[in-house]
Design a protein that fits this description.
The complex is a heterodimer of chains A (375) and B (139). With 375 residues, chain A is an alpha+beta fold. Chain A has helices at residues 56-60, 65-68, 80-95, 101-129, 134-154, 174-199, 202-208, 216-222, 227-230, 238-241, 262-286, 339-345, 347-350, 356-365, 370-374; strands spanning 16-20, 32-38, 41-48, 163-164, 167-168, 306-314, 317-325, 333-337. Chain A has one domain (56-374): Cytochrome-c3 Hydrogenase, chain B (Orthogonal Bundle), CATH 1.10.645. In chain A, a hairpin with a 7-residue loop joins strand 7 and strand 8. The relative contact order of chain B is 0.18. Classes of the chains: A alpha+beta (375), B alpha/beta (139). Chain A binds chain B through residues 49-50, 53, 55, 57-58, 61, 90, 93, 96, 219-224, 229, 234-236, 241-242, 306-311, 318, 320, 322, 324, 332-333, 335, 337, 341-342, 345-346, 349, 374-375, and chain B through 17-21, 40, 43-48, 50, 52-53, 63, 65, 67-72, 74, 95-97, 99-100, 108, 121-125, 132-133.
Chain lengths: 375, 139
């Protein structure tokens, strides 16, 4: 619901400042929003960032490429696989390393598992914001299966650092392949259940339909990507527009919904889980034999001078790494372009005139990970 | 919308497989707002803005990245400004999303974006008077 026209935005009426965060359950991390309120209506909501800033980009300038690799799992901690993929992709591009096909297929399979687990966290937390507690327990049950699978091959449950410059840390075993197939078979009926229990729930629909509309034009002006722009009807997906790794060999769609409201962003993510299952299944079917590390990755890696970029579709949208090399062992500059920052930057404009509880639904539908903004 | 490259920006093709983007242009610092407006009119989306400190040459580089929403077309626009007085016009009036990227670049490099609505620290502490990505920054 947007404000009636009688609510002035350039107000001379009395307003008050409401401080949301930095420790608030609805911001899922240390984000602060300074809200100027006119009663229940937002006049201006200004995000205040930097509470979990760690200067990742400076860390990139004082260690080697291989030493920076673990950092890439700790920016968006829910998309550790895809973020590491962008970093190793940029280094491989600069060093002209050919990654074995088996490694690329395993990268795609594990990235998509990571995307599903990320969307499941969002699903649970978002519904928690909207007042539904039970879905979180179901979602975490499903996510647990993925974490167990990934723990089996990477040794880690969240910050995987599984990809290496030139390939993978180790190969997958038969237990992983079997377990992943079982997970795909388990997850499809679960999605049907979520549709019946949650998506068609009248309370959820009343909380989301028509709430927090974001136009495609606003997404473009702010650089918002991922499910946010696809929920505004634009089929922008890095996996489709600039296919990397072996995504061009996979049959899947980038789901879009034209409404631009919070419900559309919800539906995009739910449909993306189904598409990721398709990609995982195809990846397992086509998984070639062979090594998982490129031969002759130099122990001392010096990239030729110049800049190199690599973009991936992370769970929250476009993540890109730009490396500037001056020919030494240590990068001259590492730029991390994170999707959450661009997605949140439109919040001030999009939330103007909204009711506070609706603005929290809008914020939840953006699926923010705060360390991804603050880096 | 089917964006094409504005002819007045001196774009050079880049080998995508080797570099990761398609076109690159080096422009004069006073042309950035004009370039952003031209790319905006063509329907490009703002990717990010960042800096690079070339201390040995006494220059600061500002890199503007744009991407296209419906086809593989990524462009980088770059310019260099003097390191001892790093000032450049803001493009936040053209792309409101540039606001935060420019604030971050000001935090990290001390580059002042003239006309920017609010250059207070974005990611750094509110009393920060240092710029950690300058090459002469010592912690």
């Amino acid at each position: 619901m947007t404000a009636p026209e009688t609510i002035p935005t350039q107000t001379q009426r009395e307003t008050f400042v409401l401080n949301l965060g930095p420790q608030h359950p609805a911001t899922h991390g240390v984000l602060r929003v300074k809200m100027t309120m006119d009663g229940e209506y937002i006049v201006r909501a200004e995000p205040v960032c930097g509470y979990i800033h760690r200067m990742q980009e400076k860390m990139g300038e004082n260690r080697t490429y291989a030493q920076f690799l673990p950092n890439t799992s700790r920016i968006d901690y829910l998309s550790a696989m895809t973020y590491t993929h962008a970093f190793v992709g940029a280094v491989e591009r600069a060093a002209r390393l050919a990654v074995p096909p088996r490694a690329e297929y395993i990268r795609v399979i594990t990235s998509e598992l990571n995307r599903i687990s990320s969307h499941l966290v969002w699903f649970g937390a978002f519904l928690l914001d909207l007042g539904g507690f039970t879905p979180l327990l179901y979602a975490f049950d499903d996510r647990e299966q993925i974490l167990d699978l990934l723990e089996g091959i990477t040794g880690s449950r969240l910050t995987y650092s599984y990809y290496r410059i030139g390939g993978l840390y180790n190969d997958v075993d038969d237990a992983f392949v079997k377990g992943t197939r079982e997970f795909v078979a388990r997850m499809r009926p679960r999605l049907k259940m979520y549709r019946a229990l949650v998506t068609e729930n009248i309370i959820l629909r009343k909380r989301l339909i028509g709430i927090g509309p974001i136009s495609a034009e606003m997404c473009r002006k702010y650089g918002a990507t991922g499910p946010v722009i696809r929920g505004s009807g634009v089929a922008y997906d890095v996996r489709k527009i600039e296919p990397y790794s072996v995504y061009s060999e996979m049959d899947f769609i980038a789901p879009t919904f034209p409404e631009g409201d919070s419900m559309a962003r919800y539906l995009v993510r739910m449909e993306e889980i189904a598409q990721s299952l398709r990609i995982i299944e195809q990846g397992l079917d086509k998984l070639p034999a062979g090594p998982v590390m490129a031969e002759k990755v130099p122990r001392v890696l010096k990239l030729p001078s110049g800049d190199y970029c690599y973009a991936v579709e992370a769970a929250r949208g476009r993540f890109a790494v730009r490396i500037v090399s001056d020919g030494k062992e240590i990068p001259y500059r590492v730029k991390l372009r994170s999707p959450s920052l661009s997605n949140l930057s439109l919040f001030e404009e999009a939330s103007r005139g909204m009711l506070l509880p609706d603005a929290l639904a809008l914020m939840g539908s953006l699926d923010l990970v705060i360390p991804d903004i603050d880096r | 919308m089917n964006p094409t490259l504005p002819p007045s920006i001196p774009f050079q093709p880049v080998d995508y497989a080797a570099k990761g983007w398609h076109f690159d242009a080096v422009i004069a610092p006073d042309k950035v707002v004009e370039a952003a407006a031209l790319l905006d009119a063509e329907g490009f989306a703002l990717d990010t803005i960042t800096g690079v400190d070339w201390m040995a040459e006494g220059k600061m580089e500002v890199i503007y990245d744009f991407f296209c929403l419906d086809k593989p077309l990524r462009v980088a626009v770059r310019t260099r400004i003097p390191r001892d007085n790093p000032e450049i016009a803001t493009i936040s009036a053209v792309f409101p999303g540039a606001n935060w990227h420019e604030r971050e670049t000001h935090d990290f490099f001390g580059i002042r974006f003239i006309g920017h609505p609010d250059l207070t620290p974005f990611l750094l502490p509110e009393d920060a008077d240092y710029h950690p990505l300058r090459k002469d920054f010592a912690a």
